[in-house]
Design brief:
- The protein is α+β, with helices and mostly antiparallel strands.
- It has helices at 23-32, 37-44, 81-85, and strands spanning 20-21, 45-47, 54-56.
- It has one domain (11-84).
- α1 (23-32) crosses α2.
- It is globular and about 35 Å long.
- Bound molecules: iron/sulfur cluster (SF4).
- Iron/sulfur cluster binds at residues 13, 19, 56, 64, 66-67, 73, 75, 79-80, 83.
């Protein structure tokens, strides 16, 4: 497994693609924002392209809506498992924290 040190650049949060959500992700993110899970889903989630899961909504430019202008995640401590697992198990280019 390649070494990885997050540079907090936010690049991975701007790439196109879904942040697929499990039930635990929804509950954790909702709690972090002081919201009920149902309210979080209504405000921040939508049906993913696989039509089997929910994904976080994106901004018009394709970035995750939880990415602050300064490149920080607004729900970092409660970010979804897919975000926690990045970049291990992913094939990515352009991530400055990953060894070549
Ligand atoms: S939830 Fe946070 S870590 Fe995950 S894509 Fe959105 S901004 Fe990035």
């Amino acid at each position: 497994m390649a070494a990885f040190a997050c540079q907090r650049c936010g690049a991975c949060c701007r790439w196109p693609g879904s942040v697929l959500l499990e039930e635990a992700d929804l509950a954790a993110a909702a709690a972090a924002l002081g919201m009920a899970t149902e309210a979080f889903i209504a405000a921040h989630a939508e049906l993913a392209r696989n039509r089997a899961q929910l994904t976080l909504k994106e901004r018009a430019d394709g970035a995750c809506e939880f990415l602050d202008p300064d490149g920080r995640c607004r729900i970092y401590a409660a970010r979804p498992q897919q975000c926690r697992d990045f970049p291990h198990g992913w094939r990515v280019e352009g991530c400055p924290g990953r060894d070549p």
